User: What shape does this take?
Amino acid sequence: MQPILAISTVIFALRPDETGKTRLMLPLVQRIREPHLGQWALPGGPLEGQEDLETAASRNLYETTGLEPRYLEQLYAFGATNRSPDAGQTTERVVSIVYWALVGSHEADRAFTGQNVAWFPADCLPELAFDHNAIVEYALWRLRNKLGYSRVAHGFLGEEFTLAQLREVYEIVLGKNIDAGNFRRSIEASGAIIPTGQRLAGTRHRPPELYTYNQALNLADHGPLSKNEKSKV
Assistant: This one.
């Protein structure tokens, strides 16, 4: 049987939960058909026509959640033979190309919400459809590992931010407190951020310095470059 190709996306954002505490959250879509009718699942859908994978991921993401993240990266391909049972009748093999995305809090506020779309804490999910719990677990592992060697944390922030705001991202994602002095020395030595020369307005005490991204460093890994792209580097 010819496998069916599908696209799914794990979307992370820093948002307040029902208690008001800021946590790492992700939107899920409630299934309206079998298999797994009524269960929550990752946003996604089939690969259509001649779309490239990233275009399909962006389209599915926008159609299901209304989100257009600026950080979108391929995570992994999941294709176990029994991952998509056809409501107990025949076994239909579905291979999912999974992407992961990061959005800022203001972007996340624009997501669709309602009966079939809701936000859940990434580390406290219900039992999801298919193998989506395992997919989220792998995406969390990838996110936490990339914090140490890339500027992936900036996907949660705006164009300008303070060191305290950036450190808060690390603390929420990693689930632990980080010493402010050590963090400053480490992040400044990495070359991932650049001072803007401006300070945050509206604070009661000495305004903290604002930083921005080092645009020479890639935010997302889009895979190997084409010959034309290599010639421009």
